[in-house]
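Blinded run. Sample ID left blank on purpose so nobody reads anything into the name before looking at the predicted structure. Input follows.
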Amino acid sequence: MEDFILFLKLAFDHVLDWKAYDHILFFIVLAVVYNFKDWKKILWLITLFTIGHTTTLALATYDLVTIDVSIIEFLIPLTIFITAVVNIFTVNKKKVHQSNTNLFFAFFFGLIHGLGLSGFLKMILTDSDSKLLPLLEFAFGVELAQIVIVLLILISGFIAIKLLRVSKRDWVLVLSSIVIGIVIPMLVERKFW
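Blinded prediction complete.
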């Protein structure tokens, strides 16, 4: 039980870390297009991201995949940027298309984000006989932490749209644009070429 709590805490620290806020930014732009009534879709988004994240984390932890860290460090803000730009261009499109696009982004970008953490987790698990259980415990913690982020985004959206009477379109455009403004310097700073 002690190990479970440790890996749960590590996951929460990873996802909710204000100094490494890429996870938070990604889930802002991923979830901003949804409302509470879309909870099933949102749960799928979170779970698909966690599956992608855990898959590459496991592959890298078991030394089955190795990718240059500088490339991954660039791709992570790129995934955030792409998701935000898609939000801007699809804000007035049908929800079905947007939902399918976001499901793809959640899984595929989860694969990339998992590689970004692999070095850290490998270092922690070097003395461990079994890496699978800690990896799954960590994944569970990531899932829970992401649910916390998404709930905060949905609550903020509810306040903005229902109470402050901001249009859904403006809410998506403003949040996506703010995230783009935060991510562009990250992209410039992390370019690997």
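Unblinding after everyone has recorded impressions. The longest helix spans residues 132-163.
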